[in-house]
Design brief:
The structure is a single chain. The protein is of the alpha/beta class and about 270 residues long. Helices cover about 35% and strands about 20% of the residues. The protein has an eight-stranded mixed sheet with strand order 5-4-3-2-1-10-11-12, with helices on both faces. Strands 6-7-9-8 form a four-stranded antiparallel sheet, with helices on one face. About 40% of the residues are buried.
Length: about 270
């Protein structure tokens, strides 16, 4: 869905952000955006340079956050020692507050159901499907065998209908999650209320909701500027790129784009 405003130039977006730095925020997806997509999800770490840029950025703007489908504890492990970095896991069902993971009570009540469906998936799906237990979500990865997509999606749909769960489709993965209200879009809408500038970086279908949230805020508030950055990929990135203001080719390019932003701040140290 196209934005209603004129196309945005990168220099204009950066200048507008610098001019209202304390009311500006940067929000990042994790996998495929500031970290590579890998067959083994547990092995994934931020791309080189990402942590350094986030540390610098957090000293220059009002808000920097990771918005991910990963559990919050995983994000804590991957982003140590980054002051003022907000971490939102499981699409916002988990938040890190003062170093501790806080889980929404409504979502937490579904833990036994998720445990059941995780065990069912491990028992019933082909061995090529990687079943990732996220405690309050289960991710069914078919990256090692893309031909299993149909079988995985049919199984997930049947389980969702049987147990009252919600499906989330992504890059060679289907996730089953509690049917609680909230996604990346509602989270970004909430967390940008006090901001006048907000950037969102993403690569997957779920990130489209965050793009929509920024667009909606622009339509309601002409003084607000939302900047949508898509990381291109051959799986789901084309659709997202059509709705983005700017596109980069890979997660490894995210730190380089942030360098251009950071260097525009008069008091910023050299980023890279």
């Amino acid at each position: 869905m196209a934005t209603s405003r004129a196309p945005l130039r990168f220099a204009e977006a950066v200048s507008a952000t610098v001019s209202e730095c304390t009311k500006s925020g940067f929000f990042f997806d994790f996998d495929g955006t500031i970290a590579p997509i890998m067959r083994d999800p547990s092995a994934v770490r931020p791309v080189p340079g990402a942590l350094d840029r986030l540390r610098l950025l957090a000293t220059l703007v009002g808000r920097v956050a990771i918005v991910s489908a990963r559990p919050a504890a995983f994000l804590c492990d991957r982003f140590p020692g980054v002051p003022r970095l907000s971490l939102f896991g499981l699409y916002g069902m988990q938040t890190v507050v003062d170093g501790r993971v806080r889980t929404e009570a409504e979502a937490g009540a579904w833990a036994p159901v998720i445990a059941r469906v995780t065990a069912d998936a491990a028992r019933e799906l082909p061995g090529e499907v990687l079943v990732e237990d996220k405690a309050l979500m289960v991710a069914l990865h078919y990256r090692s065998s893309p031909s299993l997509r149909g079988a995985v999606e049919r199984w997930a749909s049947a389980k969702a209908a049987e147990l009252g769960l919600r499906e989330q489709y992504g890059r060679m993965v289907v996730e089953l999650r509690p049917p609680v209200e909230g996604d990346k879009g509602t989270l970004v809408e909430r967390e940008t209320q006090a901001l006048t500038r907000a950037w969102y970086f993403g690569d997957d279908l779920s990130d489209g909701r965050a793009f929509e949230a920024l667009r909606g805020r622009e339509e309601r508030d002409p003084a607000f500027l939302g900047v949508r950055v898509a990381v291109a990929n051959g799986e789901t990135g084309d659709e997202l790129a059509r709705r983005a203001d700017f596109t980069i080719d890979a997660p490894e390019h995210t730190p380089h784009l942030l360098d251009h932003v950071i260097r525009a701040f008069p008091a910023a140290p050299y980023a890279g």
